[in-house]
Fold:
Amino acid sequence: MSSVETLQARPAPSAGRRTFNVAIVGATGAVGVELMGCLERRDFPVGELKLLASARSAGKTLTFRGRPVAIEALTPESFQGVDFALFSAGASISREFAPHAEAAGCVVVDNSSAFRMAEGVPLVVPEVNPQALARQAPLVANPNCVAAIAVMALQPLHAHNPLTRVIGATYQSASGAGAAAMAELEASTAAQLAGEAYEPKVLPHPYAFNLFSHNAAVDPASGYNGEELKAMEEIRKIMSTPDLRLSFTCVRVPVLRAHSMALTVEFERPVTPAEAREWLSAAPGVRVVDDAANNHFPMPNEASGRDEVLVGRIRQDLGDPSGRTLSLFAVGDQLLKGAALNAVQIAEALVAAR
Amino acid sequence: MSSVETLQARPAPSAGRRTFNVAIVGATGAVGVELMGCLERRDFPVGELKLLASARSAGKTLTFRGRPVAIEALTPESFQGVDFALFSAGASISREFAPHAEAAGCVVVDNSSAFRMAEGVPLVVPEVNPQALARQAPLVANPNCVAAIAVMALQPLHAHNPLTRVIGATYQSASGAGAAAMAELEASTAAQLAGEAYEPKVLPHPYAFNLFSHNAAVDPASGYNGEELKAMEEIRKIMSTPDLRLSFTCVRVPVLRAHSMALTVEFERPVTPAEAREWLSAAPGVRVVDDAANNHFPMPNEASGRDEVLVGRIRQDLGDPSGRTLSLFAVGDQLLKGAALNAVQIAEALVAAR
Structure:
């Protein structure tokens, strides 16, 4: 979905509505492009849009609501007059520039890992913990993509029957490593199909028709990689379940933009698949796709470009005779619910609370 | 690896050694081709090789040990004078023709699911349960590929500290659905890269840069699919652990020929990753690939064309404070240890026992 294609069919924001000036930091990245798309598509009341990126991209233009917007080089002074700054340019950029944005009176929604676990920083998935926004913090953190997608499937269950343990195995797409990784997946696959050699440049391992343990560094003490540890601690923070027992295995698969995960979910009390289906069907932002007769379950190609997290394969875990464990499979667009959509939803909730 | 490439470098069987006439049923399939390769590469004492397939393929030739072998149409009379018949043409062909092979005095090694769970039929992974071959049954079943690869990683652990529960999520390659599925993965991926439409013919869902729940039919009672149920019951039979609590989620990923799996393994007593690494390092047919510093773990591209099952990501499960659970990741070539290699290893063990 390009922003150019969608904008001409969309109305401009209602006349007379209060608008907010918005900056996107990392406008040229995979998430930056989707942030523009979400603002447009969801008719966020954008007054002025400021596109910020590295000096390398400055001067190029992107199109928003049918009009060209020039990309500016990010500087400490970029945030004057900005109401919301949506950061998606990595943790070090956030650490350096978010304080400047805050000093300029701007509310930061940060898609990086820089502040997610900081005391007092709300880490929010609006369908799950909107109450965390009540504090009117100057900075709200947008979760890791695995955490954001997982809690969409877990919270509606937890609300009815508390969870005690979750085991997750992920099938993560290239988009989580950015636009360059998506391009590398396509280029290396084309090379392999043509019988040509390809030297990986973005990811550490060959990606064509291959998979590998997530490329985040492995913590020598625990053996878990950074992606797994992030997902686990963030799920606990978002769900306010500090004692939830978690183990994730994060794997990069040759898929372009939606993340999948097999979840084994243990509850405090016995539970049935029918109950879980009912709870998930009623949850905003979730779509149950669980058609056993036609072998039709959540798939990345059907989750891509879509706001909802798809959940299916809901069944009683045959390995737990106590009847307290379910297995399920969830898929969500990493660039949307796993990043840009959730950030714009946070901004929407902040606007609604004003 | 084509059989043509390897055979010229290989010696013919030692002169004077006792030889056995071997038939391959399903010689033109993905596994059939690998069966020829394994017989050649492992210098199995083949006397006459008979290649059997459907009438459609009859008359074509394949090359074995540098000589052309004509493919014959499979008939009830095909097994006269044959010592070992290696079946890999699906369960219905095995059900129809294995009795003819047995009647002709031939020992059947069957790669299909037809007889695996039948009472009295040994289901064998030679590194795991060679004792099951002692019975000299006329038919030995070769396990489902997930089961064969999983038990290679599980049995060396179980032998030292009994397993009580295993949760598995698989990342299965195209080869498990045959040569046509491998071709469909390549063709549909090429089409997507070229921006062209592709209608799936072999698998039920789009496969290019996509994944989906395993295409085996779903059991309406349990919600598990046929692949998951097979893997679970076969693991219990091979390991002689009828009470082992199991749950598998089987997923088809866009990888060509090696199957991966994330395994959460619960033991009777507390266990450490160092112990597991030691036990697995000593296990025949297993290779520990667990280099956290370089983020180098088992991957399909390194398991493909290789006999060993690769095991890594061995770590204490942070979700089990009792210290009785490990997480690990195993990858094995579906066509080799998951099919052809294991079948030839069974035949080798039968020859050695004669």
Notes: Chain B has two domains: 3-143+339-353, 147-334. Residues 3-143+339-353 of chain B form a domain with the Rossmann fold fold (CATH 3.40.50.720). The first helix of chain B runs from residue 3 to 7. Chain B touches chain A through 60 residues (CB under 8 Å).
